[in-house]
Amino acid sequence: SQLRRYNAHVFHPQQKHTNTTMAVTVNALFKKSAPAPAKTVKKTAPAKKAVPAKKPTPAKKAPVTVKKTVKKAAPVKTTVKTADLSKWYGPQRKLYLPSGLLTTADIPSYLDGKLAGDYGFDPLGLGADGAIKQYRVAEVIHARWAMLAVPGIVIPEALNIAGGDWRETGKVFLEGSTGRFGPAELWLGIAVAPLIVLMGGAEKFRSDPASAPSGFVPFKGSFTGKDFAKLDPINPGGPLDFYNVAATPQDLEILKVKEIKNGRLAMIAMLGVFVQGATTGEGPAANWGKHVADPFGYNFVTLNAVDRTPVL
Fold first, then answer.
1. Contacts from 157-165 at CB under 8 Å and sequence distance 24+?
2. Which class for 83: exposed (0-12), middle (13-18), buried (19 or more C-beta within 10 A)?
3. Which of 24, 71, 156, 226 could form a disulfide with 161 if both were Cys (CB 3.0 to 4.6 A apart)?
4. Residue 219 confidence (pLDDT)
């Protein structure tokens, strides 16, 4: 069969050409007569109706929290003012006379301004013997007694207490008008004995602080005698300064000046009480009440005035 095919191709070339021509012609006829393939038209889906857009809901306004920034006040700087001691101590202190009438050159050398209340006043020269510090101790102690005595005299009399008049206190007590029972001597001993013990002990410990026993005070706690060793015996402060009023040495020096000034005034007041009681025979509260009721009719001038009413 292969040989036949070979012969057909080799020995009959025209027949091969004819067959090829016919095949082309038949194919062309079929192409013309064959109906064109139908075009497939894709049906488009009906357009969806446009949904009306929803109105945008207004967004809720979130509450605006305004933070109030409160500026803190700047801390106030507390400047501790140091007390000016130059007008009370030293060569530039105040004197008992104005500067034009008296200078530090005119006062005794022992009044050098180291003591509280030193105004250069010593007309009798009592401090020339060198005992000026001992005199200061005596002055302060008497001043403190006077400051206690003045209210102790005036207040009982003003309240009209039995024996309130200081001139009659001992007399009323001894006569029993104060409501006591038992002999007066017993009560006198009871009143005097504690004073001797307490005041004597306080004076001993003041003059010899190292011998003072240990103790306890409010707001300060426990203390011993050694705590007073380096302190001023007349103005110790330290454990006896309950309320810490003399927190600094400058405060203590100012308080010394205030104490001696008020103490001197109280001593003068006590002198007035003694003279007034001897002159009028009444206490200071009674004298003051009468003077306030009639200032011009009851005073030291009218009490000693001589009646010069003419006699016809």
1. 157/283, 157/284, 157/285, 157/286, 158/285, 164/283, 164/285, 165/282, 165/283, 165/286
2. middle
3. 156
4. 82
- Start-to-end C-alpha separation, the chain: 209
Within a 10 A sphere around the Cβ of 200, how many other Cβ atoms?
Answer: 10
Instruction: Specify the higher pLDDT residue, 298 or 144.
Output: 144
C-alpha span between 45 and 91 (Å, rounded): 120
What mean pLDDT is predicted for residues 235-250? 85
Q: By 3-state DSSP, what share of the chain in percent is helix, strand and coil, each rounded to 5? A: 50, 0, 50
User: What is the DSSP track for 206-264?
Assistant: HH-GGGPPPEEETTTEEE-GGGGTTS-SSS--GGG-TT----SHHHHHHHHHHHHHHHH
CA distance 65 to 282: 80
Residue pair 120/111 in contact (Cβ under 8 Å)? The answer is yes
Residues 6+ positions from 311 with CB-CB distance below 8 Å:
none
E strand intervals along the chain: 215-217, 221-223
| ∠ Cα 84 233 245 (to 5°) | 45
pLDDT, mean of residues 121-144: 92
From 52, 234, 210, select the one nearest 133 (Cα to Cα).
234
Nearest-angstrom CA–CA distance, 36 and 232: 139
- Token pair 């009639």 is found at 294
Mean pLDDT, rounded, for 25-32: 49
